[in-house]
Amino acid sequence: MSDNKSTVLVVDDVSENIDVLIGILEINYTVKFALDGDTAIEVASKEPQPDIILLDVMMPGLNGYEVCEKLKLDPVTAEIPVIFVTALDDLKNEVRGFEVGGVDYITKPVVPEIVSARVKTHIEFKKVKQKLAEHMQKLEEMLDNKLDI
């Protein structure tokens, strides 16, 4: 049964924050975690890739914005949605999160119902996008075959 679960990658340098998010998500998802940005990029690049990444902003080494930018520049990880989960609750930081490619922004302390709802929504949206891309590819192939006749 767990083979059908979507995978969430939680990235935070504070293990207690990771534990909180795992506690919220582990019932419905397979949860992986990373304690720093470099590890997050490595985990996101390997199969099976996460379906979504929950990413802290303030971390030593690469901060969350830098991690997101790197993920979005790599074709292997570019389509993985990133939700920032951070204590930075001002508008400037939230806007920055969207500018670097994040799909959502949740402030700490997290509300379990908000985290669950947003993760579910963005995973469902990603799946719909993937199905649409597959259908478009099939339609293009059908059209190419018709034109070759």
What does this 3D model show about the protein?
- The protein is an alpha/beta fold and about 150 residues long.
- The chain has one domain (about 1-149): Response regulator (Rossmann fold), CATH 3.40.50.
- Helices cover about 50% and strands about 15% of the residues.
- The protein has five helices and five strands.
- The protein has helices at about 15-25, 35-45, 65-75, 90-100, 110-149; strands at about 5-10, 30-35, 50-55, 80-85, 105.
- The chain has a five-stranded parallel β-sheet, sandwiched between helices.
- Helix 2 (about 35-45) packs parallel to helix 3 (about 65-75).
- The model has no long low-confidence stretch (mean pLDDT about 95).
Summarize the structure.
The protein has 149 residues and is α/β, with parallel strands linked by helices. It has five helices and five strands, in the order βαβαβαβαβα.
- Calculate Rg over CA atoms: 17 Å
Q: So how many helices?
A: 5
**H/E element sequence:** EHEHEHEHEH
Strand order of the largest sheet: 2-1-3-4-5
**Biggest sheet statistics:** 5 strands, parallel
Give the end-to-end Cα distance, rounded to a whole number of Å: 45 Å
Give the low-pLDDT segments.
Answer: none
Indicate the CATH topology: Rossmann fold
CATH top-level class: Alpha Beta
CATH architecture assignment name = 3-Layer(aba) Sandwich
Estimated share of beta-strand residues: 15-25%
Helix content estimate:
40-55%
What sort of overall outline do the alpha carbons produce when their principal axes are compared?
Answer: globular
Number of domains: 1
| Protein structure class | alpha/beta
What is the CATH H-level superfamily?
Response regulator
